[in-house]
Design brief:
The complex is a heterodimer of chains A (62) and B (149).
Chain A (H helix, E strand, L loop, with lengths): L2 E4 L5 E3 L12 E2 L2 E7 L6 H6 L5 E7 L1
Chain B lengths: L2 E7 L4 H15 L3 E6 L6 E6 L2 H8 L5 E4 L6 H8 L13 E4 L8 E8 L4 E6 L7 E5 L3 E5 L4
Antiparallel strand pairs in B: 1-3, 1-4, 2-3, 5-6, 5-9, 6-7, 7-8
Classes of the chains: A mainly beta (62), B alpha+beta (149).
Chain lengths: 62, 149
Amino acid sequence: MVELACRNCKYINIDSKVCKNCGSTELTKEWYGYVVIIDPEKSEIAKKLGINLPGKYALKVG
Amino acid sequence: MSKFFAVKTTANQERVVANLVEMAVRKYNLDVYSILAPKELKGYVVVEAESMEDLLKAIRGLPHIKGVVKGEINLAEVEHFLTPRKAAEQIKEGYKVEIIAGPFKGEIAVVKRVDETKNEITVELIEAVVPIPVTVKADHVRVVDKMEV
């Protein structure tokens, strides 16, 4: 299982070469910090990070 | 308005715990909105929930959880985890650092040069007889003394 973060939107993709969130192919294994967004509408953290879709994200990429 | 709570976990299991909490939240349909596991905060995860009850229901019976820190955390205290700065930005020339990884692990050194774009620093080991500059990743050192030598 390889977890790759998208350089564009920081979404973490598992065993995928294309970002499932934004379609970008620029994925990297160098990412730090982990955040799981369950309810983007109610989450203050999601608002601060500008995340609209639930899922797993990296805090820092590269 | 959501609240933030800190949950103590086994070290290096923060991501596992975050995933397990997410599964429990979806299963029981709880008002937990996000789970944060910053690299800087070892042994803890920050859970954003509507109330303490929702959090307690979400973590009940899960492995790797050692307890919940009493009281809430302010958003301001969590905010700086969201925009992590590069390790090199927090190190300045002259700082005394301990090398925590690589062949020089455990050595104390003085910072001679900082390269923020590469996230690298050049240091000189204090105990070396002949001063040799060594370039290491900024993540591989820990600041011991901020007094500029």
